[in-house]
Specification:
Order of helices and strands: EHHHEEHEEEEEHHEHEEEEH
Oligomer: single chain
Number of domains: 2
Number of helices: 8
Distance between the termini: 23 Å
Radius of gyration: 21 Å
Structural class: alpha+beta
Number of strands: 13
């Protein structure tokens, strides 16, 4: 899996090259992006040293390396986008974004140092595993759960009000999947689950109730529902 960690200045330089220099054609853009010209010069030199920007004899820069260009192109113009937001007790993780095209699947997020981390995934199975991992359900648990075992015990057999579960939740995970996000008529499909001491609970809008309910689910069942959400939008 190819992975790239970029500062804001490095990402700005790369995006500028990929948009034909239009990103920074106005001085105001530097202020909006919170970078200065000195930082951009240093970023470009660093990218050249890493081989992420390529140069030809007698030319300063010829373009972005092909592998990185493929990842950034997917992030810039995806056919489908999946966004995972995880809320813990007391804090919210930066969103994890999966951008899918016919040529590439890219994952990106901002790390604790404020750097932009991009990675190329091989296929939709890796997307599924990465979504569960981003939500706290690590890949190892996904594999062990294929026999139907829940993460923490069996959970309560009957659905419970989502509002009550949120008061007990260690973590709330929300997944949104959008097909053709550039289309103004694009439709978003969403899925949400909660982790409590009793286990995992999947928000279910299909249940006949006056208030939102969630039903207990094992990691295997959650894996199936997330996979179905990806297939539904594909």
């Amino acid at each position: 899996m190819n992975a790239y960690t970029l500062t804001s200045a490095e990402l700005t330089v790369l995006m500028d090259h990929m948009t034909g220099g239009r990103l920074l054609d106005q001085t105001a853009a530097l202020t909006e992006l919170q970078v200065d010209e000195q930082a951009l010069v240093a970023a470009e030199e660093n990218l050249l040293d890493q081989g992420l920007l390529l140069s030809l004899p007698f030319e300063q820069v010829s373009g972005v390396s092909s592998q990185l260009a493929s990842v950034l192109s997917a992030a810039l113009s995806p056919d489908r986008v999946c966004v995972v937001r995880t809320i813990h007790q007391g804090h919210t993780d930066p969103p994890v974004i999966f951008s899918l095209t016919a040529e590439c699947i890219a994952r990106n997020q901002v790390d604790e140092q404020g750097q932009h981390v991009f990675a190329e995934l091989a296929d939709q199975e890796q997307v599924l595993s990465a979504i569960l991992e981003a939500g706290g359900e690590v890949a190892a648990e996904e594999g062990s759960a294929k026999n139907g075992t829940a993460k923490k015990g069996r959970g309560t057999p009957k659905p419970r009000p989502l509002a009550d579960l949120l008061k007990e939740a260690h973590r709330l995970v929300m997944l949104m999947v959008v097909e053709d996000p550039a289309d103004q008529k694009a439709v978003a499909h969403s899925l949400a689950w909660v982790e409590t001491d009793e286990g995992l609970w999947l928000a279910d809008g299909t249940l006949d109730s006056e208030e939102p309910l969630a039903q207990p689910v094992g990691v295997a069942g959650l894996c199936q529902r997330v996979g179905a959400a990806l297939e539904k939008s594909g």
